[in-house]
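Inverse folding, one chain.
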C-alpha cells in the first residue's frame, strides 16, 4: 500500500513543478546596498530595518547625476557693500594708471635770493648812519618842562604826575573823540605837561612826542588850517615856530563862559612844543612870547 497522498503529482511532471515551493530570496547585505546606492529600509526580507536619510535614490545613482543644489542669492545690502568697497579700489587703480601715463612735470626753480657776504668788515658808524635816526629827545620829558611861576596855582592835568595819556590829551579839545583817534593814527608816543593859573589866566605847556615815521604829519596836523580872526607871527629864536593870538573871544565847551585864546607851536626833533593860554581878557602877546622862548631854550 502506497503512503503518498492521492493527489501527489509525479516527479518531473508539470504539475510537480507548479506545486513545488519557490526558493527564498536572499536579503542584500549592507555593503552591497551601499555600493549599489540602494536605501536600506523596511523590505519584505527585513521589515524592521531603519531608514537611512540623505542617501541618493536608485534613480539618481542609475542615471549618474548628483542631486540639484539650491542657488544662493545675494541681497541688496551685500551688493551695496561690494560696490562701496570696490569703488575706491577701482578709482585708485584708474587714477594711478592715468598719472603713470603722463610725462613728469619738473619742479619750479627756487626763488630765494642767494646770500652774499661783504668781503671787508662793515663800519659800525656808517651802518648806524644809514639806518633810521634815533629819537632826538629821550628820557624823562618832565625834566625838560619849565617851572611854573612863583605865586601861581598848580593846575596840572591828568593824574597829577606830569604825564599825559592820549585820552588826557584829547580831553583838552572840544572834539575829544576825533582828536583821540587822530593822535593814535599820527603815532602818538607820550606827553608831559605843566599847568598853572595866574590871576584870571590859565597857562598850559606841553611836550608831545611822536614816533619818527609820523612826526612831520602829526605836527603839521596840529597847526590850524584856518587862521582867520587870529594874529599870526613867530616868536624870536625859532623861524619854524607859529604864534597865534585870537582877536575875538571863544566859548568853552559845554559852557557859556567866554575866553581869549593864544598858542605858540614849535618842533624839536620828534617833540612838539605847545604853549597855550586861556585869558579872561585879550592875551598879552609879550608874555606868551616870553614863555614860549624860555621853553624852547630848554629843548635846545
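Residues assigned per position:
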Amino acid at each position: 500500500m502506497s503512503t503518498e497522498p492521492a493527489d501527489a503529482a509525479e516527479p518531473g511532471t508539470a504539475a510537480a513543478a507548479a506545486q513545488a515551493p519557490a526558493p527564498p530570496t536572499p536579503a542584500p547585505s549592507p555593503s552591497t546596498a551601499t555600493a549599489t546606492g540602494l536605501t536600506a529600509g523596511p523590505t519584505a526580507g527585513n521589515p524592521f530595518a531603519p531608514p537611512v536619510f540623505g542617501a541618493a535614490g536608485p534613480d539618481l545613482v542609475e542615471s549618474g547625476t548628483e542631486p540639484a543644489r539650491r542657488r544662493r542669492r545675494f541681497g541688496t545690502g551685500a551688493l551695496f557693500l561690494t560696490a562701496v568697497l570696490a569703488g575706491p579700489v577701482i578709482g585708485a587703480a584708474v587714477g594711478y594708471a592715468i598719472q603713470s601715463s603722463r610725462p613728469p612735470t619738473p619742479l619750479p626753480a627756487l626763488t630765494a635770493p642767494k646770500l652774499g657776504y661783504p668781503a671787508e668788515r662793515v663800519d659800525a658808524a656808517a651802518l648806524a648812519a644809514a639806518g633810521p635816526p634815533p629819537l632826538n629827545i629821550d628820557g624823562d620829558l618832565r625834566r625838560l618842562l619849565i617851572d611854573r611861576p612863583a605865586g601861581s596855582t598848580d593846575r596840572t592835568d591828568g593824574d597829577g604826575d606830569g604825564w599825559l595819556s592820549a585820552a588826557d590829551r584829547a580831553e583838552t579839545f572840544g572834539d575829544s573823540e576825533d582828536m583821540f583817534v587822530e593822535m593814535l593814527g599820527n603815532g602818538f608816543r607820550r606827553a608831559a605837561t605843566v599847568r598853572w593859573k595866574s590871576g584870571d589866566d590859565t597857562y598850559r605847556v606841553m611836550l608831545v612826542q611822536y614816533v619818527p615815521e609820523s612826526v612831520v604829519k602829526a605836527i603839521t596836523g596840529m597847526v590850524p588850517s584856518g587862521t582867520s580872526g587870529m594874529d599870526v607871527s613867530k616868536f624870536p629864536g625859532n623861524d619854524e615856530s607859529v604864534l597865534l593870538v585870537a582877536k575875538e573871544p571863544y566859548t568853552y565847551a559845554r559852557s557859556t563862559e567866554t575866553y581869549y585864546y593864544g598858542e605858540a607851536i614849535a618842533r624839536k626833533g620828534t617833540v612838539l612844543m605847545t604853549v597855550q593860554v586861556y585869558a579872561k581878557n585879550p592875551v598879552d602877546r609879550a608874555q606868551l612870547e616870553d614863555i614860549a622862548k624860555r621853553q624852547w631854550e630848554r629843548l635846545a
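The CA atoms of residues 54 and 287 lie 133 Å apart. Residues 76-101 form the longest helix (26 residues).
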